[in-house]
User: Fold this.
Amino acid sequence: MYKIIDGKKISQEIKDELKKEVSVLAKSGKKAALAVIQAGDNPASSTYVRNKQRACEYVGIESVSYHLSEETNQEELVRLIKDLNARDDIQGILVQLPLPEHMDEDEIIRTISPEKDVDGFHPVSVGKMVIGQPGFLPCTPAGIIELLKRSGVEIAGKHCVVLGRSNIVGKPMLHLLLQEDATVTVAHSKTKNLKEITKQADILIVAIGKAEFIDASYIKEGAVVIDVGINRDENNKLKGDVKFDEAAPKTSAITPVPGGVGPMTIAMLMRNCISAIR
Ligand code: GUN
Assistant:
């Protein structure tokens, strides 16, 4: 019988722990405020931003919202970030991605002060993560490590296969798993013999952005499967990258979509905001 890894429940436990930390910090006069910037009206981004603001409210972190128009130019956004970098009353800055196409995302990420980079996307944060120094960790992969640990899944010595090589999930996932002493293989759209590789995984982490791409035939009996995919089907229903109903009975544990990795990303953002105050 497989276990469903309940990201909603685990993220709630973490938010409750963080809420206590925030109230202790508040007693010593330390307050946290997160600036959340959205450019344009991408509906998925609007949902994520709303969920992040709600989580801030729950944990006791003030969130200051900047919703800019799709036509905002690069210079305006750079100026806003520089203003926020200089403000003592703002500890964290988050720019929701993707940005409108005319913007240079790399420059925007580099403009955020590394001390306020609660997404962990700045090259300074990425460098620290790669060499194992303390710093802001990217929220989705950090959330996956936390999910595995809190579900009692041992990582050390396991063969983890990461499907996908994005800067936000796949690449940092590789480093965080290595840090936990896993053996890691990263596969992607150009990988040959994909199924042969995924079938070797003790822990399979799927972040390819293709609805229900991974069926039971890609999975080793008893593997742990983490589904990072958030796709909408023609009826606007959320679908993961894994065909859950077919895959689940072959696993020992699996995350659902929704209610798996998604809520953990937000819990880790809250954790980074609290690190930013410390
Ligand atoms: N877009 C998709 N995931 C993320 C994330 O974790 N942070 C930000 N800022 N944008 C995203």
